Structures
1.
Amino acid sequence: MLISNEWNYGDMENNNIKELSREIEIKDSILNFVKEILTAKEKEDNFTDYIKIDNFVSFVENDLRDALIKTKLYDQIEEDEKKYYFKEGIEKWALTEKKHWIKGKTSIAFIGEFSAGKTTIINKILSRDHDINLLPTQCKPTTAVPTYITGGKETNYSFFTPDNKLKAISEETFKRLSKDVLNQVDGVSSLIKYFVMTSDNKALENLSILDTPGFDSNDASDSEKTASVINECDVLFWVVDANDGGVNRSSLEIIKSIPHKPIYIVINKIDTMDATEIQDIQEELEAVFADSNVTIANYILFSKEEPLDTIMKPIMHLKSSLTYHDENFIFKLKNFIDKKVELEEKELKKEEKNKQEKKDKLDKWLEFLNNQIKRGKSDCDEITSNSIVKRLFSSDKIKNLVQRFKRDYERFPKIEESRIETVISYYGILGKYSDIKYKLYILKDCQKKLNSFNF
């Protein structure tokens, strides 16, 4: 009995040592992970482009907008155009422009509840239906943090921060991350918005796939963060395990919180059921979404036995129809300013013509008044001459001169009033003309600076 106790004590001690070693190993792994995340450097190939994009955004949101406000043109712009060019539109353009993993690609998010089969479907796409798990089905990072899988010249790993920076990490560090790590190290998840994994894969030439954690495995803050990442994608594929028979309330709320995105429901693992059961599940889902006012683009019946085309056809169709990333934003903005310049140039020509017409009229009035003054002076000289004075009361000529002088004197207020109106009108047009020239000067300066940005 004593020997048995000694053996038990030895086993317990060995187990404790092993357990302690595992804990130390885990702690060491966590420390290395945190160290690399905290010391990760921004990817150099993106740094210059980021600065250029930020400078462009700053110019549009500040200099260009202020110029339009200064010239009183901003208030004439439609509210939708203000939002597009100076608020939401340019911000969305800038964010997407910085993200090579979604720029110019169809970006699709696979979402759903834990163990619904999202990663298996993604593997099917990546391997082009050749049973090769390019992405581990239990890949810890993708079950802990949203992860983009996209095409690239080589396989590498990085993470995108909440303040929009892309930082490089090693494959070893990428694979260290798990939900346990996130739970044990407070604050690490706040440093990582999502991972970006690039792979030299032809299936990803024009496609970017977002793999997400299962919503029922996340807490509220994780779900909120994942929802914000999903909102960057063009289209959502919500994967439902046919064996579960539906979606839970929290998942439904997340679907409802993501507006203006096509949503496809993938009823997965249908190989475990007969046709009647599958039909019942689809009808039940249709009723749930109808009651919740959620529009579903289509339902896709899928399993590991189904050909890849079942899910790729909708994706290929989407490639030609999605326009969420406006790659022509800069062209449209330049065209927008060009039209403002063109309109002001037309207005300037119009006012230049009006100005010349008023000036010509004013010159005629001045000529007329000068002639009236000359004639009046001549009449006065003739009246006051000695020879004339002697015959003042007998000369018809003098009488006519006096009457004409009196008539001109009576007309003078009306003539002067008309002259003043012409002068006021002229200087009013001159002021408007100067305002337009000032607007054009500022607009053309902005136009020149805008054209100096090349992307």
2.
Amino acid sequence: MNVGLEVSAKELVVAREGKKGVRSFANTPAGHGELIQTLTRGGQRVRVVMEATGLYGLDVAIALSDAEGIEVMVANPRAVRNFAKAMMQRSKSDRLDAVVLREFGAGMRFKRWTRPTANALNLWALARRLEALTHLNVAEKNRRHGAGVSAAIPASVRRSIARSLRFQEKEIAELRREAMKCIQADGELHRQQQLLRSMPGIGEVSAIQLLAELLLLPPRP
């Protein structure tokens, strides 16, 4: 049975082969369990196609891939968009997207998703947090600059910004150390990281973020 799964932050919309309409499940551990029970009822082999959606889709992809009788394909979004255009499907909604994913699974070569290792998942989570804190740090540095040139900003605000920056920079350094531990624990990751660092303009943080995203990137169409 081919199944299309459209993922959002709170909801999973499912289109099943041979079933009219779609069903919705909560994007929570309990919702994942209910989805698995629904899909495996009857004992037939199930192939689920979903798009790469980062954090919102990772947990459900792992849960489905661990379930007996279910195979998961994490499709490249560009390939799915091109397929939808070929179907003359220009409208867009979660329900329609789930149907397109179901038909994509039926009409295209199925490429089974392999669950990343625990080390790879740790690196991905660390890199995402590092990216978020780095953006915050840049914004806070901009505030520090603005506060430094404005006589209207009291010293208490400048001190607050300075404390915030010290905390953020301490957290960023810790995240970098933990991410490098993940990379150094895997010989292939370490080799790739060194290759990335050899390229002009790619520093340690950029290499960490690139490696982490590549680990979860679906195969090219």
3.
Amino acid sequence: METRALGPLGPVSVLSLGGLGIGGMWGETSHREAVLTVYAAVDAGITLVDVAPAYGKGEAEHVVGAAFGGKLPDGVRITTKCNLGSPARHEIMPKLERSLTRSLEAMKLERVDLFFLHSNICPDDYIYARETASQKSWATRWSLYVEGVVPAFKALQKKGLIRAWGITGTGLPNTIMQALRHEDKPAAVQVTTNLLDSPGSMRFFEEPPEPRNILRTAVNNGVGVMGIRAVQAGALTAKLDRLLPEKHPERVDYTKATSFRALAAELKEDPAVLAHRYALALPGVDTVVLGVKNRAELDAVVAGVATGPLDPAIIVRIDALGLARQMPRMPI
């Protein structure tokens, strides 16, 4: 499988295996099938596995532990995350270390290659449009990020528990780009990379999400990019594999993407595979995280990507559907 440099971390496979699918959060799967999917991913050349303790209430990390038994195959790297929120400053390091320690125990590892802050990062005085009452539990204020989170990550590096750290770039675009330009910038950022430019249910604010501007800012500042939500949680697949309310963001996006599925049918392409190939064609994306939950889904995307880069003429046709609304900005 093709590799690309993930910022300062060096080469990784262009496809990564994500934890949401193997954690059972993108439709039904079994522990055994999830473990076999991990094996199949490594056999296919995938060298990065991206999990989190919240994925299936720890199931994704336990799948990693069961698959590898604490001995990673040569070249395979592991990432995990912590949803920190905005605790008191003195609680930041203990909370991050507790979360990381539990993750390492579940995966039977001594360290991870990347440890992500999985909270939204926002200005100190910002009030979100959605889930306002609980935002302290999932949004990290800027001053806490700079004065508490970054020093804690550096301390975890010194302890040898993490190789590097990153951020999930689905928070306020201005603040995410500020973090990418900061003197203490992350090694990698997870960025929405789909043809809708939609973070779906991960968006809690009213402002445009600006994923492509975040992507360009990461590239301009030497930060590695892990593309996430290539199929927008199922909205860009042939059929949603779980029941969702009519106004759920993923269902709204599924309806919006009707013209894309029609184009995929015309091209005789699986829309999910086409969506992944589109995400990989976005300039600056180092690896795209797969949300597959079984070997069949994995094999389909791996085979599709193996056919080569997406024809630029097809990219033009996808963009001409007008499903993404980009906000022009000069990234620095």
